[in-house]
Amino acid sequence: MVLIFLYILSYQFPGLLVITNMLFYVFLAIVIIDSILLFKQKGIKASRILPEKLSNGDENPIEIKIHNNYNFTVSLNLIDELPFQYQKRDFQIQTIIKKGADKKITYTLRPLKRGEYQFGHMNIYTTSPIGIITRRFQFGNESMVPNYPSFLQLKKYMLIAFSNKIFEFGLKKIRRIGHTMEFEQIKDYVPGDDIRNINWKATAKRNQLMVNQYQDERSQPIYSVIDKGRAMKMPFNGLSLLDYAINATLVISNVALKKQDKAGMFSFSRKVENKVVAERRPSQMNQILETLYNLNTDFSESDFSRLYIDIKRSLTQRSLILLYTNFETLDALHRQLPYLQAIAKNHVLVVIFFENTELDKLVQKPSSSTYDIFEKTIAEKFVYEKKLIITELQKHGIQSILTAPEDLTINTINKYLEIKARGLI
Predict the structure, then answer these.
(1) What is the pLDDT of residue 177?
(2) Can you give the pTM of this predicted structure?
(3) Contact 30, 130 (CB under 8 A)
(4) For residues 39 and 33, what is the distance between their CA atoms, to the nearest angstrom?
(5) Per-residue pLDDT at 178 exceeds 50
(6) pLDDT tops 80 at residue 194
(7) Cα–Cα distance between 409 and 412 in angstroms, integer?
(8) What is the chain's Cα-based Rg?
(9) What residues contact residue 70 under an 8 Å CB cut-off, 6+ apart?
(10) How far apart are the first and last CA of the chain?
(11) pLDDT tens digits for 106-117?
């Protein structure tokens, strides 16, 4: 632009023409030198390291390794072609890498929908210290990575089955009621053991305190039942209620297996499907994971009568049934209540449904106009109806969990541990 301006001025001031020509040749020489520096050397090498699968709803790290073969420091502008699900066309990372050096760049992606995520090419635009010419490098072929239910949550709660420090995971300490436990062994008394478990005969023989040690009853069927009707398509923080239920199902199935119980699952809307029979096989978690990966809503009205008929026909052993669904009004519950009562006669049924966190925000929001007051009143009505649903279920002997979507996994594990401690199954 400066040269063009000088050329224009040279028509009025002919003496400037010589200076302008000199500047032009200097600029041309710099461009040629910059081009030689960038294009006559090997340049850079880069690779993108993708995980085998993505974890839905979690931050997944993507790693890029870059090596600078230039004998000078270069500036890089990295543009990675992300899967179309993200709809990001301006994703770029700018950095500097010294001569002969290696650099590792890590960024995270949070997928919000299960399925296949197609990564494109990785484009790196390189600039020398002169900074006039830019050279593009393209690396990597198109790669597909499947996005599975949140296995990162599964790892997070893996230690629950083996650790006594459950508070670190946000879990409650559950007081055991009675002794619906299997006898395991007689052991030396240590401070903290329940004195009611002292074995007086063994104590007399050994002349020191001995206690009976018990363990939870094992091999009890734990079924996660997921409502995949249209009510579960409601989104919170990018994830649908269905995906929150899927992630919780994966975690609670793993915890149940670690507790030596049998884990199974199925889904329903117009009919019951995606069934995995409760077992303790080594391949059980993989089968549950693959089933959950392919589970999608069909936008239908869920048929609880079909659910009751299928449970009555196929589940002959008393089981813990964790039913993930959603009721927004008391009338919606009353339509399905007879079927829930029938299921609860032969099984321990826990109905798990969701708080509407957006309504909670409206209730807590200060009112500054008549419209705000009207909006807040309606929100309070729906929040109150959720509490009435809990009361109605309790009145009919059905356990329930009303939870914010983000707390679903923790609250479900707490309920499972509580039911185990009380010996209800």
Answers:
(1) 44
(2) 0.79
(3) yes
(4) 10
(5) no
(6) no
(7) 5
(8) 32
(9) 37, 41, 42, 43, 44, 99, 100, 126, 128
(10) 82
(11) 999 999 999 999
